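Hey L., structure's done. Input below.
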Amino acid sequence: MIASPKLSGYRTPMAKLYFYYASMNAGKSTTLLQADFNYRERGMETMLWTAALDDRYVVGQVTSRIGLMAEAHKFDPDSDLWAAVNAEHAQRPLACVLVDEAQFLTRAQVLELARLADESGIPVLCYGLRTDFSAELFPGSAALLGIADALVELKAVCECGRKATMNLRVDEQGRAVVEGAQTEIGGNDRYVAMCRRHFMAKRREAAAAGVPA
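Output:
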């Protein structure tokens, strides 16, 4: 078992676990990269993570829609974040850990991140989707909503101008998809951020028309 490192560096006794959540296209990765830049600009060390299964751009890289990017460590369901972060922290005291695509974390990994904040004194900033294309919580998001110290909603905009809180999965013809696996990696060609009203209306239309999953 790896004990919490006793380092003076950037150790923060009151470190917190944050969850920045939103629908698609709310600027989650951009916000993460800005936070990372702010730390590094002040000479502080950070550690970035992203989901290994996210291959929309480059695997092992946090990439924003506006072109910003940074190399990141990859996590999958078997990754031991507690051990990996503490090992890095022993080599270079970390001011912050930032996790993109946090909806793909397991509950156990979220507990590891909370422990990093509590016992290792490292602030942890997680960014991810709250719900999937069926408006169901992702496991990682459910765990973060339950135990994070701070919850921050990032705003996206529906085509009607209202706040977009839902992620509509669409097919090649732009029709709503109402069935399928929870995880299907895709960008604007597969998902559209919408307000609840239009999300529900599009799904009802698709169900009535018998659109295949």
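Helices lie at 28-41, 81-91, 107-119, 139-147, 196-209. The two ends are 45 Å apart (CA to CA).

-- N.
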